[in-house]
């Protein structure tokens, strides 16, 4: 951690150059004796990225930022605050502390938070920033999280773990058993130290695969921001052996969409099918990730278009956790039909359709954009159709 970065002169330069092309800075002559051009660029890039991702940090003076790779791997404030809403009690250990965004959120709900980070520089940065943010109930320790738990005589209300999804060669991994730390291998230790675990995994982990690897899963939370799934949260309670509760949440700019179910709800639901009616419904990304394709339609009294299309329809408009469209017309999948309809520009989405969007555009001669939306899908009679819509 280069404390020279925190001087007024250099902080002023960083703030004044947030919109400057960083390539020009990196190639220019070194401006400051104690701070390299590379360090300046790292601070500018990370601060700029934090403007929308971490507004509290961005709007606090003299924050020290890690490189953009470390920043990209941290939670956003939105998702960190959501995690904090799931915990309570006296103490929490953030076993894989990183930049400290999650610890910052947890400290608002938990009396004592321990931030563990094996990278000494990152631990030092987090400690400094917590002080800048006016936080006094987080203790930062630079060590391996599992080592800390093994050596600590204490038990804690909660443990939070965000295993690294990169191997020793910095390649991405997807299975929990391949992540670091390996929570599957160390589950006995974790449950000795706390009866409540919150584990964060990436959005690509299959839910059924995770349930096979993890025990005592009480809740699974699938968290999306603006229809982009950011993380899956596994809430583990020692001794819990019933069916897990699954909650999906999609944060929009001024509200959030929520939907909850259990896997047995999905398995026991027999959907009804229909041709496209007045309205078309497309579930948000969190619901699609959850695999609730039958129960979602049944819960909202909607018809499915096809067993594998995951689009729903109704005659009357309802409030729905996803995008909603009013049907303008339905066409067969042919250049002749689309040309006759006069459609030359549209936003195209495919659901259970053999051709790619690129191939569809070429075949139907449709440019991208505009207010018209097209769903290329298969109906209940296994016929390829084109649904022309307007989004509500």
Question: What attributes does this structure have?
Answer:
VC0802-like, single chain, alpha/beta, 16 helices, 3 domains, seven-stranded mixed sheet, 26% strand, nine-stranded mixed sheet, Arc Repressor Mutant, subunit A, Rossmann fold, 392 residues
Short description:
The protein has 16 helices and 16 strands. With 392 residues, it is an alpha/beta fold. The protein folds into three domains: 68 residues, Orthogonal Bundle (Arc Repressor Mutant, subunit A), CATH 1.10.10.1110; 170 residues, Rossmann fold; 125 residues, VC0802-like, CATH 3.30.2130.
Describe this structure in words.
This protein has 392 residues and is an alpha/beta fold. It has three domains: 3-70, Methyltransferase PG1098, N-terminal domain (Arc Repressor Mutant, subunit A); 73-242, Vaccinia Virus protein VP39 (Rossmann fold, 3-Layer(aba) Sandwich), CATH 3.40.50; 267-391, VC0802-like (2-Layer Sandwich), CATH 3.30.2130. Helix content is 31%, strand content 26%. It has 16 helices and 16 strands. The strands form two sheets. The chain has a nine-stranded mixed β-sheet, with helices on both faces. It has a seven-stranded mixed β-sheet with strand order 11-12-10-13-16-15-14. The protein starts with 7 loop residues before the first helix and ends with a strand. The mean pLDDT is 94.
């Amino acid at each position: 951690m280069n404390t020279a970065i925190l001087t007024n002169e250099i902080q002023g330069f960083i703030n004044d150059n947030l919109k400057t092309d960083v390539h020009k800075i990196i190639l220019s002559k070194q401006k400051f004796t104690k701070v390299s051009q590379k360090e300046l660029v790292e601070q500018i890039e990370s601060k700029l990225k934090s403007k929308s991702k971490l507004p509290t940090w961005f709007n606090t003076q003299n924050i020290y930022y890690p490189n953009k790779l470390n920043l990209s791997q941290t939670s956003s404030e939105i998702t960190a605050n959501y995690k904090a809403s799931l915990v309570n009690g006296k103490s929490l250990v953030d076993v894989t502390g990183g930049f400290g965004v999650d610890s910052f959120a947890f400290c608002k709900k938990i009396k004592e938070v321990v931030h563990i980070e094996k990278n000494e520089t990152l631990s030092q940065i987090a400690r400094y920033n917590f002080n800048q943010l006016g936080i006094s109930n987080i203790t930062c320790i630079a060590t391996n999280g599992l080592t800390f738990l093994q050596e600590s005589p204490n038990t804690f209300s909660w443990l939070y773990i965000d295993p690294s999804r990169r191997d020793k060669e910095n390649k991405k991994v997807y299975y929990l058993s391949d992540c670091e730390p390996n929570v599957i291998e160390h589950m006995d230790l974790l449950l000795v130290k706390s009866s409540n675990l919150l584990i964060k995994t990436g959005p690509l982990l299959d839910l059924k695969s995770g349930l096979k690897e993890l025990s005592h899963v009480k809740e699974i939370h699938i968290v999306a921001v603006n229809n982009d799934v950011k993380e899956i949260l596994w809430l583990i309670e020692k001794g819990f052996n019933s069916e897990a509760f699954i909650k999906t949440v999609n944060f929009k700019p001024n509200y959030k969409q929520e939907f909850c179910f259990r896997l047995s709800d999905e398995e026991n639901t027999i959907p009804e099918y229909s041709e496209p009616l007045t309205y078309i419904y497309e579930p948000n990304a969190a619901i699609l990730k959850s695999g609730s394709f039958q129960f979602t339609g049944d819960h909202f009294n909607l018809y499915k278009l096809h067993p594998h299309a995951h689009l729903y329809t109704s005659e009357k408009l309802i409030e729905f956790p996803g995008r909603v469209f009013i049907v303008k017309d339905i066409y067969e999948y042919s250049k002749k039909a689309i040309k006759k309809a006069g459609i030359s520009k549209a936003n195209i989405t495919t659901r259970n359709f053999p051709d790619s969007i690129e191939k569809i555009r070429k075949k139907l001669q449709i440019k991208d954009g505009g207010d018209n939306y097209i769903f290329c899908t298969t109906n209940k009679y296994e016929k390829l159709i084109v649904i022309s819509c307007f989004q509500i």
